[in-house]
Amino acid sequence: MKPFQSMPWHALIWRQWQQQIQERQLPHALLLTGLPGLGKRTLARALAYFVLCTNHQGQQSCGHCRSCHFIEAGFHPDLLTLEPEAEGKAIRVDQVREMTTQMQKSSQQGGYKVVLIWPAEALNINAANALLKTLEEPEPQTQFILVSDQPSSLPATLRSRCQIWPVAPPSLEEGEAWLKPQLSEEQQPLVLLKAAGGRPLAALKLATPEAEERRHLLGQVMESLVRGVNPIEQAVKLKALALPALLTSLQSWLADSLRYGLLGKEGVQDVRQLSLYRQLYELMGQRSLLNLEKELQAMHHQLHTNPNVDLFLESLLIRLTQELHHE
Ligand SMILES: [Zn+2]
């Protein structure tokens, strides 16, 4: 895919933006919202590139002008990205101030300047306030594009300064058509897409060797726990896996086990583990599955405190064993 293009399921939003641009009605601050895995950043970038391109080809960037060449080279002097310095960290007020100073300088290309901000919920309160001031008195020819998976955790004052654009998942057919050419022969696009709750980029992540390995290992360990094998021995097998991804997988399996028990096969998101779901539901029942799901959510929050991995895995598997075998 060219770096300048949005994704097929963004077409409606793209057309609406084009209309606004033609009528010179595109608001100076946009907020793209929606679940992770829908390509919001790709869409935001595509608009940024389009705004910066000086030789539009219809509704697309040209890919050839000086501005497009900058983008292809990986650096554009009039494009700034405001993001946390490391994943999980905040966007700080001095980053916003630095950006504001940059924006006050005239554009290198004599045209627009664009600021991408993601994830916008990472702005700490001082940073959000500083940004708010900039949005209230914007420099001319400046375009802000904010991206957020959790818009409700943004200050209402900040949200109210932006035009909000919810990005929706594609239809299953559209998602499948996009996914298929990116998978190997034996991978099933529709199965992966459903397992990812209809989110194409999340489905692509499920298709990676790391995700396959995680599913395989976790599946083995869960089968062993079902058979009553010592959880401490099993914990060692999971040591190499990243804890957040492990917990996310486990949470979705518990949720699917519950759906399987209540709704049958049709209600399940990820159909690759049906026999395990059946066993988990039979052994644990609704209440235990619900309780465990809540506990896993709480454990997810504990990850910020960098827990001891061995102890964390052991206590996780001991809890699962207790619920499986009513110990
Ligand atoms: Zn161009």
**Distinct compounds present:** zinc ion
User: How confident overall, as mean pLDDT?
Assistant: 94
Largest sheet: 5 strands, parallel
Largest sheet strand order: 2-3-4-1-5
Low-confidence stretches: none
Pattern of helices and strands: HEHHEHEHEHEHHHHHHHH
Morphology: elongated
Total number of helices: 14
InterPro entries: DNA_pol_HolB, DNA_pol_III_delta_C, DNA_Rep/Repair_Clamp_Loader, P-loop_NTPase
Domain DNA polymerase III delta subunit C-terminal: 212-321
Catalytic activity: DNA(n) + a 2'-deoxyribonucleoside 5'-triphosphate = DNA(n+1) + diphosphate
EC number: 2.7.7.7
What would you say this structure looks like, in words?
By secondary structure, this protein is an alpha/beta fold. The protein folds into 2 domains: 8-168, P-loop containing nucleotide triphosphate hydrolases (Rossmann fold, 3-Layer(aba) Sandwich), CATH 3.40.50.300; 208-325, Zinc Finger, Delta Prime, domain 3. 54% of the residues lie in helices and 8% in strands. It has 14 helices and 5 strands. Strands 2-3-4-1-5 form a 5-stranded parallel β-sheet, with helices on both faces. Strand 2, helix 4 and strand 3 form a beta-alpha-beta unit. Helix 7 packs across helix 8 (189-195) and helix 11 (231-237) packs across helix 14 (309-325). It is elongated and about 70 Å long. The protein starts with 10 loop residues before the first helix and ends with a helix. The chain binds zinc ion. It comes from Marinospirillum insulare. This is DNA polymerase III subunit delta'. Its EC number is 2.7.7.7. Residues 212-321 form the DNA polymerase III delta subunit C-terminal domain. Keywords: DNA replication, DNA-directed DNA polymerase, Nucleotidyltransferase, Transferase.
